[in-house]
Design brief:
The protein has 376 residues and is of the alpha+beta class. A hairpin with a 2-residue loop joins strand 2 and strand 3. It starts with a helix and ends with a helix. The chain contains 14 helices and 10 strands. The relative contact order is 0.13. Helix 9 crosses helix 12 and helix 12 packs antiparallel against helix 13. Helix content is 46%, strand content 13%. The chain has a 5-stranded antiparallel beta sheet. Strands 6-8-9 form a 3-stranded antiparallel beta sheet, with helices on one face. The protein has a two-stranded antiparallel sheet with strand order 7-10.
């Protein structure tokens, strides 16, 4: 267990963090929550006259997000812009549709604890849940609509340009070169156990080249985007099944529609887990993919250009590849970036993503037709 995770179980520290924000009532407890790869998340519970109130508190991982102040500046700008857009639409339940930052008692929207770690707080949105895998096309469509709508809401975000909270985050060329470097170093002595995966990954260089060509031609244009559109970054309403609120906004920064759709499709167009060991289960579900394309295109509406829509299936294949080689590179370097929960966990993740790449390639025409059939 890392030192950060140990501190997340330290009730004295968590009491300090809860007390640093303008929260109502008497602090009862805080407990670790969720299974994210990067940040530490806890749920703080407070006793109020109206019962127990719950808040999500997250420690920003400084090893990944080197400038937390910029992360929080982006976060605050984006949720304020979303709120204004929803108000113009006449939406009433705003507290369930957009995240609300709780102010720190010392001012601002974050708190630096006694260990130098930066925390933020938002209320728990009750009556909704996140899903690691879709229960069916309805979940896929709902989540995709929410992400597409999020993209549309940010289409008119005024200047200045959002900060790059992780520079070159979805730069396929950079990720390819990082894998090559880790293969040469073999710092953890693991290359012998994954040579076939490395060979397959390096043979996919044409994917990188094509992405670069799409950017040069203007098909892929820069826009404010989420950049981490895993299925579990949308809260699904328990009663209606609607994609209610987009969460986990640390990576909201300049990005693109193809990579946002692509990252969603890699996690929601298959019924297999991201770290599935039985690779025979890792395949694209045609019904789920069609639902994702329909929801995303409809949610994004006029903000999604026709040229982007034609390349959504490529975006799905590309993002499975980019994330797959990131997992593979981290396995080779000794698991220094992604949090792991078992031996060779990052290799399992890499194998699953690369198996998905192969299935996307086999079914490219079929999936491209699904995207073409999706109507705004």
């Amino acid at each position: 267990m890392s030192s950060a995770e140990t501190r997340a179980d330290d009730q004295a520290l968590l009491r300090e963090v809860a007390g640093a924000f303008a929260l109502p009532g008497r602090w009862l407890r805080s407990a670790p929550f969720g299974g994210g790869h990067i940040n530490t998340t806890v749920i703080a519970e407070l006793q109020t006259p109206n019962g127990v109130a719950r808040y999500v508190q997250q420690r920003i991982n400084r090893a990944v997000f080197r400038e937390p102040a910029r992360v929080m500046e982006n976060f605050a700008r984006v949720v304020a812009h979303q709120r204004r857009a929803l108000e113009r639409e006449g939406v009433r339940d705003l507290e369930r549709r957009v995240l609300t930052l709780v102010p720190a008692r010392s001012g601002g929207n974050c708190y630096e604890d006694s260990h130098g770690d930066v925390w933020r707080t938002v209320p728990v949105i009750d009556g909704a849940r996140s899903l690691d895998t879709p229960r069916g096309p309805r979940d896929a469509r709902a989540a995709a609509f929410a992400f597409g709508r999020f993209l549309a809401q940010l289409a008119d975000l005024p200047p200045p340009r959002l900060h790059d909270t992780i520079p070159r985050f979805h730069d396929a060329r950079l990720r390819f070169e990082q894998l090559e470097a880790e293969v040469r170093r073999d710092a953890a002595g693991r290359l012998v156990g994954c040579r076939s995966e490395v060979e397959f990954a390096l043979a996919q260089l044409p994917l990188v080249t094509r992405f670069e060509e799409l950017k040069r031609s203007g098909v892929v244009r820069e826009r404010a985007a989420h950049n981490d559109t895993k299925l579990n970054n949308v809260l699904i309403d328990d009663l209606t099944g609607e994609g209610l609120c987009v969460i986990d906004l640390d990576t909201v920064m300049p990005g693109g529609a193809l990579t946002d759709f692509g990252d969603l499709a890699r996690t929601a167009a298959t019924r297999a887990a991201e770290d599935e060991r039985d690779l025979s289960r890792v395949r694209v579900d045609a019904a789920l993919f069609a639902a994702l394309a329909e929801g995303f295109v409809r949610g994004a509406g006029a903000s999604l250009e026709q040229s982007e829509r034609r390349e959504l299936a490529f975006g799905a294949r590309l993002m499975a590849y980019v994330i797959g080689i990131r997992f593979l590179a981290d396995h080779l370097r000794g698991d220094s970036y992604f949090r792991v929960h078992r031996e060779h966990h990052n290799l399992d993740r890499a194998r699953a993503q690369l198996a998905l790449v192969a299935d996307y390639e086999r079914r490219d025409a079929e999936l491209a037709a699904s995207c073409a059939a999706a109507n705004p």
